[in-house]
Amino acid sequence: MNIIKNRYLYFFISLLVIIPGIIFMGLNLQKSASPLILGVDFRGGSLLEVQFEGARPLNTEIGKLYEEFSTSEQPIADPLVQSLGEDGFSIRSRTMTDETKGKIVAEMENRFSSKVIVLNFTSVSASVGAEVTRAAGYAILLAAAAILGYIWWAFRSVEHAYRYGTAAIIAMLHDVLVVIGVEAILGYLLGWEADALFLTALLTVIGFSVHDTIVVFDRVRENSLIYRRVEYEKMVNHSIVQTLDRSITTQLTVMFTLFALVLFGGDSIRHFVIILLVGIFSGTYSSIFNAAPILVVWENREWTTWFKRKEAVV
């Protein structure tokens, strides 16, 4: 099985996945001044979680109720209403006061003839949201630096150890772009908002991606000491094939579990699980089809022949 042979095809597939996400990030910028549709945790707002002891109303009825209480001082119209279990709602809106929340809950009880239990009510200011955004950026940068340093140190016995760390970072950034791109597309088309759970999913994807990449690279390191006279490209391909079963089996176990959660886990975590599912799939792909092939491209210095190949074709 010659996986390395088609490395440029794999790079092209990655671009086909990433570019639409970048386009939708630009569309979101025009729509909401942000590459993603940000939730309460990032842009500020209020989260109200309620439970109905009687029959639960429709999502649209909750949305209409919020519109009635929306004012110029508290524009809480168009809330994001998600089912919470079988008898509750999780409602995200722009920031509102405790007084307005109390009026809305009272109106719910009156209009829907059911006792309403407030499970949770929290408000986040815009300044806190900006702080969370900065912390997320710092976390990703710190993770990248730590990964680069660790792999450089762990692979110090191998020639050009820094290449392994750099390739792992590139594969990680590939997965970050895929996840953010998918979130941008879903946000633009379905109105999905990026919240703290999205950040959790993103950081989890980074961990999975790097873990799988290190497994492949570790086999490359072992084989580079065993097959010293074998061509580098063949040795890397052999290493990928040796770890292929393990990588796919491990990731499929996680993906099947996540897929079950998508189907039966409920609306409150479906967004989080779908993003995590996309990220795990991307991490498996990038570890096998991007990270190791990058080592081969670097070893052969293939960028020096790219234009020559084009001239030969002409």
Verbal overview:
A hairpin with a 3-residue loop joins strand 2 (80-84) and strand 3. With 314 residues, this protein is of the alpha+beta class. It starts with 6 loop residues before the first helix and ends with a helix. The chain is elongated. The protein has helices at 7-32, 40-43, 59-68, 98-112, 126-154, 161-190, 196-226, 232-264, 267-300, 306-313, and strands spanning 45-52, 80-84, 88-93, 116-124. Strands 2-3-1-4 form a 4-stranded antiparallel sheet. The protein has 10 helices and 4 strands. The model has no long low-confidence stretch (mean pLDDT 86).
- SSE run: HHEHEEHEHHHHHH
Distance between the termini: 31 Å
CATH topology group of the largest domain: Multidrug efflux transporter AcrB transmembrane fold
Tally of DSSP helical segments: 10
State the name of the first-level CATH class of the largest domain.
Answer: Mainly Alpha
Decide which structural class fits the backbone: alpha+beta
Q: From the alpha-carbon coordinates, what is the Rg to the nearest angstrom? A: 24 Å
How many strand segments? 4
Largest beta sheet: strand ordering: 2-3-1-4
Which runs of at least 5 residues are low in confidence (pLDDT < 50)?
A: none
Beta fraction: 5-15%
Largest sheet: 4 strands, antiparallel
CATH architecture of the largest domain: Up-down Bundle
Number of domains: 2
Task: Estimate the mean pLDDT confidence.
Answer: 86
